[in-house]
Amino acid sequence: MKHQLIAAAAGLLLLAACAVRQTQISDPTPAVPVPTVPQTETTAPRENIPAETVISSGDDWKLTLVNASHALPEDWDAELTVLSNGKRVDSRIYPALQRMFDDARKAGLDPIVGEGYRTHAEQQQMLDDRIDSYLQEGRTQQEAEQLALEYVAVPGTSEHELGLAVDINSQSGNNEAVYVWLAQNAPAYGFILRYPENKETVTGIAYEPWHYRYVGDVAKKLTAEGLTLEEYLAQSP
Ligand SMILES: [Zn+2]
User: Fold this and answer.
1) What is the rounded distance in angstroms from the CA atom of residue 11 to the CA atom of residue 13?
2) Which domains does the chain have, with CATH numbers?
3) Does the active-site annotation cover 208?
4) Given 150, 208, 225, 230, which residue is catalytic?
5) How many Å is the Cα radius of gyration of the chain?
């Protein structure tokens, strides 16, 4: 109960802080606590996943690594801020996201958060829906599962389950301009292009110009040096 009260209070502060702004991502509703998400045991082997030993994320929450070979930490627990379109993000990244959107809009763009936090159950549902759609096309169960896993991460291995990743697109469909602006400017707000071109063998994910991940201050360094989060963590002591 105490936890919920604190969450609600934090949400009110956000509301108060944002009430005077005209250009914002949303009118955030009070933050809600995130249930601890159980992690899955298995990660199906997928192409392009480096067969390397576990990379340590260290103690910094901002650098928590989640990919096909690094499942969501069992004790991962964060508070969420709900955006006006219903999408949710970790409350700790909300201020930086807000600043980035304010500035993108000043530059004449119309970014929108197309996807933020996903629960374990929602990730599972996405995978199930994808499998169903292949089954309806007449694929066998095995084929359908294989195909679906090429596009949808196994529950427990999607960065969206952290709440630190957002898919950003253009509200009017002018995605390219938004992607170009983000590629140039997002690191200044602590966000990295998480799945760059030509890094599929490291990240295990194809180029996604819309998917940004909050890592904080090191975003500029990572971007300047052309490092993925995996590469940065592997070389950190
Ligand atoms: Zn994404």
Assistant:
1) 5
2) 2-119+153-235 (3.30.1380.10)
3) yes
4) 208
5) 18
